[in-house]
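Notes, Module 5: Reading structure tokens.

Key idea: the token line is not a picture. It is a compressed description, and you learn to read it the same way you learned to read a sequence, by spotting repeated patterns. We will look at two proteins. The first is printed below with its tokens.
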Amino acid sequence: MSESASALPASASSLLPGAFRIPKEIECWGHRGASAHLPENTLASFRAAILEGADGIESDVHATSDGVVLMFHDPTLDRTTTGTGTIKTQPWEGVIEHARTKKEPVQPIPLFAELVALLMEPANLHVVLNLDCKMQNDPERLFPEMARIVATYPDWETTLAPRLILGLWHPLFIRSALRHLPLLTRYHIGFSLSIARTFFWDACSGFSIAFPVLMSSAGQTFLQECREAGKEICVWTVNDPGEMRIAMGWGVQAILTDRVGVLTGLKKEIVAHPELLPLSGIKGSLFGWSSWRYYSLAHTWMQRTQLDVLRTMCYQPGPLKLPDLADEVRERPALKT
């Protein structure tokens, strides 16, 4: 095995896609970094997550009006920073670059280029980056700039691309992903299993699904279908130790959490003492009924909400349609999905 291949996480170098993972093989991905105790989506948060043992980072991308790609969750600056207004209507230079986090320690908003540079540091060549591509952005503005940044690194096809995952909410992003970032893995993010099956099953090699949805019988059926088809499953956002245990019992690829230290510590404990994995006693028996989020009525509401959001909040509002990918597939017959 080459040095670059050996630096990749287990899911990228040895395990078959969709394989059931025992706890020591399940990855911890820091949701917006170590966001439980540091400002979310900042370099400080990303670095802390890695130091706490995260195998991957989950973060979000937006493009400014002057074409700069930055790491930020909301479409507006107001909730977490001193800035105001919509990201895509304001320039980075002279405006957004001056915004700082409200939460301490005060941090600037990081650029995509800065996060990639962090991943390419010698100590971090094992770290995966799961990119939540926010639907308010036109992918034809977002993806070409991301592709340009990725391609600035020597041997990026082998040292960087295998560690980058494009998380897609909306089917309008599939064609642009194929065109501009064909070597990057594609996952669908969501909490609607019907949308996942209808619009993303053929175009994506994995799914990042909200934890409560997988608690249902329909969720467990979807999990089994993915396993049989060789498709990966990740779950978000899992901060409760009980939910962490349940997710590890499902044998998923990765668990996304704000509490990286809690998950990595629990994982080490269970690897050393496998008998601690199952929830025992009354808590184990009643866990499936312990939260309204696990109920089918809540899942129906979640799925309707996702459909409404995709129809109305995307950069191009309207009904969902399957993209015509014939030209992209013909041009790139060996694309990685």
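Here is the second protein, with the sequence above and the tokens below, as before.
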Amino acid sequence: MKFNINFLLVLLMMLYLSSCTFNKQVKSSGEDFIQGIWTEDSLPNQDQLASYQQFDFKFNCDSFYVKIKNFSKVNLQGGSCYDSNTWYEYAKGYYVVNNDSLKFEGNFVDSEYKYKTQGSCYRSGKFIEVFFIEQKADNLLKVKSLQSGMLHQFWLKEKLSCKQ
């Protein structure tokens, strides 16, 4: 019995391709203490600051959605998008709590939390932020931004539970 080398190669290729499967993306349940909608009312000494950011977060399982209120007394960014002293940016992605660190990795999105094209007003692309958790309680979360050094205090407005 004589084997055809082409037949053997096709057979091996079919076996190889049929053995590969994509891993199902498993959604993590996230951290229970942080599940919910958190708002920031004000920053310490915000009237004396030339610029600052305030965050409103929604944590759902291992995902986050954030609305960022930016304030600046001067237009350091350039362009007409920043002529107003106050503007909003939005981002979504995944978060991880590791000991006393709260790490965010996601993307800037539009106000409906959908893909944001480059070249539109404000930032686009990757959103990466890291906070040091200074205090956590049932309805209070105090964190310090490792990028800006600013202290942020969030209040729990609505408790959510992760449903997968």
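Summary for the second protein:
- The chain has a mean pLDDT of 85.
- The beta strands are 36-39, 51-60, 63-72, 86-98, 101-109, 126-136, 140-145, 151-159.
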